[in-house]
Write a structure and sequence with these properties.
With 229 residues, the chain is of the alpha+beta class. Among the domains are: 66 residues, Orthogonal Bundle (Arc Repressor Mutant, subunit A), CATH 1.10.10.10; 76 residues, Ferrous iron transport protein A (FeoA) (SH3 type barrels, Roll), CATH 2.30.30.90. Helix 2 crosses helix 5, helix 3 crosses helix 4 and helix 5 crosses helix 6. Bound molecules: zinc ion (ZN).
């Protein structure tokens, strides 16, 4: 038997969202270590929670690999992702909060939003489809647009593209990108050079040169465009 109240606890909501975010491969499997890293908890507590989520029929175990979301689990994860990203957009656009501060606020508020407030926020923002970090916002029918993006760090020199999204979880990194490197979603660039063995990347943005370390480049998703001649 499953309990509706327990299914809607903040911990359960955070876990299904983390599973959706870290799921990989054709079977969309999330591993214990992936979810532990995402939530900043120990693998031991993740294993315990995976069992509980399976009892709540929100996930099924994939032996030796982790878990995959059930239909119900997927719906709940998409609902929470929609609320989180709508709240981030609302905090930036309606309240003028800087983009590095909205993730933590949205993480707290997302668990307390009613369906009506969610709809009113979406309507007041003109039904946005991307959040301030460039991540897609699932539609009201809970459809997530499929993004054709690659990690910036995987590009080779000479390739050009547009920044699609930036990981929202590290405020210091977001501040560095907007205030020092002056880049964000929609910035066009050419990758000029990349040092081997995890060394830095040199981007050309207009006539400006920007150097980004490899860990930073791993947190940036880009859309490739044909290289300029
Ligand atoms: Zn966020």
């Amino acid at each position: 038997m499953t309990s509706t109240t327990e299914r809607r606890s903040a911990t359960v909501e955070d876990y299904v969202k983390a599973i959706l975010r870290t799921a990989r491969g054709p079977r969309r499997t999330a591993s214990t270590t992936g979810v532990a890293q995402e939530l900043g908890v120990t693998p031991g507590s993740v294993s315990g929670m995976f069992k509980r989520l399976a009892e709540l029929e929100l996930v099924v175990h994939v032996p030796y690999h982790g878990v995959t979301l059930t239909g119900d689990g997927q719906q709940l994860a998409l609902r929470m992702t929609r609320r989180h990203r709508l709240l981030e957009t609302f905090l930036v656009e309606a309240l003028g909060m800087p983009w590095d501060r909205v993730h933590a606020e949205a993480d707290r508020l997302e668990h307390h939003l009613s369906d009506e407030l969610e709809q009113r926020i979406a309507a007041s923002l003109g039904e946005p489809t991307v959040d301030p970090h460039g991540d897609p916002i699932p539609s009201v029918e809970l459809m997530m647009p499929v993004e054709d993006t690659v990690e910036l760090g995987e590009l080779v020199p000479g390739q050009a593209g547009v920044i699609a999204s930036v990981s929202d979880t590290h405020p210091d990194m977001l501040r560095y990108l907007s205030d020092v490197a002056r880049i964000g979603p929609s910035t066009r660039f050419v990758l000029q050079d990349k040092q081997p063995f995890g060394g830095p990347l040199m981007l050309l943005i207009g006539s400006r040169k920007v150097v980004l370390g490899a860990p930073l480049a791993a947190s940036v998703q880009v859309r490739l465009s044909p290289a300029p001649r």
